[in-house]
Inverse folding.
């Protein structure tokens, strides 16, 4: 009876953890895509600016995206933190953007829209910073491991009198417990582990930057 209760508790708990972690992965993927998409819109806006403003804005956006891909993503995978250099780049982008003085009319409208995209980049980045470091608490993992052990022990101690059946049942139960714990651990942090989100959104943004740059100015 007690074993059944523990088994049910373990199954429900690990199921909730896996579902929550999977939802977190999906949200993190959407957040990274939103950040890169808004950054691309800012780069596109630069076409409407004269030099040297256009060149400066494009350089700042490119430096930020490049740092995110090359430095920040490995850092998130390793210690779940964002790059200070990338923070500096995005703050420089916002600061420089605020120095632009658009003309009235259509130019002012485009500037306001682009400024909202800059803010969206910052908002998505802050959300990504929280997601990168929001894993399952260690105490909960310890509790789940304890429940898993409680589920496994009866299969090991009180199994079938037939040795082959006893070993098979114990191995299957142990394998299932280990598998679900491993799956939950792999989904724990969205930017690290075996099912980590990669920097593809920013790599695609850098490719788009090149395409936009070849179009020249005068959006």
């Amino acid at each position: 009876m007690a074993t059944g209760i523990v088994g049910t508790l373990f199954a429900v708990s690990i199921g909730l953890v896996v579902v929550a972690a999977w939802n977190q992965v999906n949200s993190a993927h959407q957040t990274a895509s939103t950040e890169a998409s808004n950054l691309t819109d800012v780069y596109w806006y630069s076409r409407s600016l004269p030099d040297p403003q256009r060149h400066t804005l494009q350089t700042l956006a490119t430096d930020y995206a490049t740092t995110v891909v090359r430095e920040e993503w490995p850092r998130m995978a390793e210690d779940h933190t964002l790059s200070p250099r990338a923070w500096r780049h995005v703050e420089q982008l916002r600061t420089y953007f605020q120095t632009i003085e658009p003309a009235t009319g259509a130019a002012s409208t485009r500037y306001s829209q682009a400024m909202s995209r800059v803010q969206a980049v910052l908002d998505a980045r802050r959300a990504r910073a929280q997601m990168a470091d929001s894993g399952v608490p260690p105490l909960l993992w310890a509790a789940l491991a304890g429940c898993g052990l409680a589920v496994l022990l009866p299969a090991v101690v009180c199994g079938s009198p037939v040795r082959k059946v006893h070993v098979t049942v114990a191995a299957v139960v142990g394998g299932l417990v280990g598998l679900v714990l491993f799956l939950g651990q792999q989904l724990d942090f969205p930017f690290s582990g075996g099912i980590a989100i990669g920097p593809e959104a920013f790599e695609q943004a850098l490719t788009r930057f090149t395409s936009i740059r070849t179009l020249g100015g005068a959006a």
